[in-house]
Design goal:
Structural class: mainly alpha
Number of strands: 0
Distance between the termini: 79 Å
Radius of gyration: 24 Å
Strand content: under 5%
Number of domains: 1
Largest sheet: none
Length: 94
C-alpha cells in the first residue's frame, strides 16, 4: 500500500505528492477490498485505511499549524521591519 509513501510525503511537506499519493492509496484500498472475499478481511483493510488516514489527518493539521505560525511570525516581522527601514523625517515648525 501507499501509506508509508503518503506519510513520508506529508512529513516532508510535499503536499503535491501527498495529494497524488492519497488518490493512489484510495485506489489501492479499493483493490484490497475487492481482493478480500470475506467480511473479516475487508474489515481489516478498512480499519488499517482508517487508522492511516486519521494519522495523516493529524500530521497534516500539525504541519498546517506550524506553517500558520511561521507565516504569522514572518508577517509581523515584515511589518515591523518595513517600519524600521523607512526613512525617518522630522519637520520642525516654528
Amino acid at each position: 500500500m501507499y501509506s508509508d509513501e503518503l506519510t513520508r510525503a506529508l512529513e516532508a511537506g510535499d503536499f503535491e505528492a501527498a495529494e497524488r499519493l492519497a488518490a493512489e492509496y484510495g485506489r489501492d484500498v479499493l483493490e484490497h477490498l475487492r481482493a478480500n472475499g470475506d467480511a473479516a478481511g475487508r474489515e481489516a483493510v478498512l480499519r488499517r485505511a482508517l487508522d492511516t488516514l486519521n494519522d495523516c489527518l493529524h500530521l497534516t493539521r500539525v504541519l498546517r499549524a506550524h506553517l500558520a505560525t511561521q507565516v504569522r511570525e514572518n508577517s509581523l516581522a515584515c511589518r515591523y521591519g518595513a517600519a524600521i527601514s523607512e526613512p525617518q523625517r522630522w519637520q520642525f515648525e516654528g
